[in-house]
Amino acid sequence: MNFKLGDFVRFVDEKREGYVTRVIDAETLGVTDTDGFEIPVAVKNLTYVHGHSSKPTAQNNNETEVVVDDEFNEVGIYLAVNEDSKASSVVHFTLINQTSYQLLFSLKTDLKGKYKGEFASLIQAKTSSQIYSANLADLEIWPSFIFQALYFTTANIKPKEPINITKKFKAKDFNGAKKQVPEINKYAWLIQLDEPLPIIDAQKLKESFFKTPTAKPVVPKPAAEIDLHIEKIREDHQFLGQSEIIDIQLNYFQQILEAAIANQMPSIVFIHGVGNGTLRHHIHKTISKHPQVRTFMDARKEKFGFGATEVIFKG
Fold first, then answer.
1. Nearest CA-CA partner of 87 in 21, 23, 144, 40
2. What percent of the chain has pLDDT over 70?
3. Does the pLDDT at position 35 exceed 80?
4. DSSP class of residue 1?
5. Residues 6+ apart with CB under 8 A from 267
6. What is the mean pLDDT of the chain?
7. Domain 58-192 has what CATH class?
8. Which of 11, 106, 195, 293, CA to CA, is 20 to 30 A from 35?
9. Residues with Cβ < 8 Å from 262, sequence gap 6 or more?
10. Quick one: pLDDT at residue 87?
11. CA-CA distance, 182 to 186, in Å (whole number)?
């Protein structure tokens, strides 16, 4: 059987189930059981659990209904990276085509000179398709990703240059706040593959060579304790939806975190409250991977309980 990351499987020789979270080699997979332990298991000793297929639904493959717009969109090719709903260490990559072009798209990986074709398909306009899965804990040993795409349309449009991007993902790509992505109905990190190049004004560039360098803008130093409750951030909070509130809180947290680092603060406390734990979870995931964070802990339990986190920065 060809198992994929995120598949729910059962052990053939014992009463145990779990999710595929790592591909060790062609004959061995890492399976994380319900107790959270990852166990190496031979592929021949695994079977699918009926009713738990991980195959992409219609919204994630090329059978997606094509949406036709009156306005022709030339830009909007994104890579959405979201965590698996059951096996959080696994992330899925979805190619989102918001343009009016059909895309002949392919993904190839390069692991120290060993190339492997991972995905190739025709992506219709205004559709999405899941193209890859990986274990986020293995980020440091991920291969380089080679994204290629040819544009096609029957419209009277000047031919567009193909996409040919080689990207090596780093921790900083997953440090920012995730956004709600309607195409997959999940929160995900978004990376634009067809981001337009900045237009360079030759005259302004020439003038800049003769200007006196200006001082770098000073980033205001944040307070030692930052309250992330939405009513402390936005006066119109009562008109905001839950997903908007989370996005605003996470963006504000990210701004303050970077400001604290820029000002070389030894530590900072974020008051996020208890609630359902969503905001706390996203904050802990971000700081656990941040290269400038030495450690973090619950702050002043006698005052905040589990509603605040202290972040300690590297010296």
1. 21
2. 87
3. no
4. -
5. 224, 310, 311, 312, 313
6. 85
7. mainly beta
8. 293
9. 219
10. 82
11. 7
pLDDT at 197: 64
Closest CA to 106 of 166, 158, 174: 166
- Neighbouring CB atoms inside 10 A of 6's CB total 21
pLDDT for res 63:
43
Residue 127 burial (C-beta neighbours within 10 Å; 0-12, 13-18, 19+): buried
Edge-to-edge strand ranges of the sheet holding 186-192: 127-135, 90-97, 77-83, 186-192, 179-181
- Polymer length of the chain: 315
Q: Is the pLDDT of residue 107 over 60?
A: yes
**Placement of tokens 């030339």 in the chain:** 74
Tokens coding 91: 């992330």
| Lowest mean pLDDT segment, chosen from 47-61, 87-101, 277-291 | 47-61
Please count the other Cβ atoms lying within 10 Å of the Cβ belonging to residue 110: 14
Amino acid at 275: G
Overall average pLDDT of the 287-292 stretch: 90
- Ordered by start, the domain boundaries in the chain are 8-48, 58-192, 210-313
What distance in Å separates the CA atoms of residue 106 and residue 116, rounded to the nearest whole number? 11
| Rounded to 5°, angle at Cα 181 from 180 and 184 | 125
Give the pLDDT mean for 123-141.
Answer: 92
At 89, the amino acid letter reads S
Among all chains, which residue has been given the structure tokens 């409250």?
Answer: 273
Pairwise CA distance, residues 127 & 66, whole Å: 6
pLDDT of residue 64: 44
Give me the amino acid identity at 272.
H
Largest CA distance in the chain: 75
Which CATH code of 2.30.29.30, 3.40.630.190, 3.40.50.300, 3.30.1370.110 fits the domain covering 210-313?
A: 3.30.1370.110
